[in-house]
Amino acid sequence: MDDALLQNLLSGLSLNGQVVSSPSTAASLHPDGGLSDAYSKSFHPRNGVSEYDRQKMVEAERNERIMARKQQLVELGQSRGIHYVTYGGEDHLHQIMDLITRDFSEPYSIYTYRYFIYQWPKLCHLALNADEKVVGAIVCKMENTKSPFGAGDPVRRGYIAMLAVDKSERRAKIGTALVVSAVESLMNYSCDEVVLETETTNQAALRLYENLGFARHKRLLKYYLNGVDAFRLKLWLRFPPSNREKSSLAPAQTGQATQAEEDSTATVQNS
Questions:
Q1: Alpha-carbon separation of residue 4 from 21, 86, 240 (angstroms)
Q2: Angle at CA 159, nearest 5°, toward 101 and 12?
Q3: 20 to 30 A from 2, CA-CA: which of 81, 158, 164, 222?
Q4: Which residue in 134, 142, 214, 201 sits closest to 174, CA to CA?
Q5: What average pLDDT does the structure give for the chain?
Q6: CA 183 to chain centre
């Protein structure tokens, strides 16, 4: 399980539109042009690095690549007169509603928007054009869910509820920029994973999310009112809490065991 999760953590959110599928290819996508020798060697099982430290390095590398990717997208937006903000009030709310109503196959009431945006305003990211008009929006929330890795280890989950971009601005990578901004915010709130649902027929959305490292986690039959199935997509941001806790104890336990063996050996030799 750890190897598969490590591979997923190092996948996606790449530079230059590439998707990383293994630690060995991650080096070519580092913001500095490549991982340092010390970093890449740290994954070798014989170098003495604890599992806990290895996991933290993987998470730190993912964070760096997210920030580098976000900066690229912000600069691209600026070249086209687009800038990014978080939710700023009722004027934004009505523009978000208009945008999503035009784009989505299912209608939402104003209470649905208020449920998400009023409770998690910092998880609502917007793209504005030069006229301060909302041309892109992503709406998210957070929740604690039961961990599939064992009882007593809740997972902090980020959920992308809505993503929409004005058709006139769809070549400016606004959707990608909004998802990356949302992922960054969810990471800052210590989320372990991000999930969402999208229609199985929406190839553009699937391509966008999968290029950012999301994996198809489950197929939901007739999920939408129009009878279309949905894919539940998931992006793992951190190792499971149970793994982190157990791994953090490993170095100390190993050290104690080693010391006990040395004491035992010394006793035998001295007797």
A1: 10, 34, 12
A2: 105
A3: 158
A4: 134
A5: 77
A6: 5
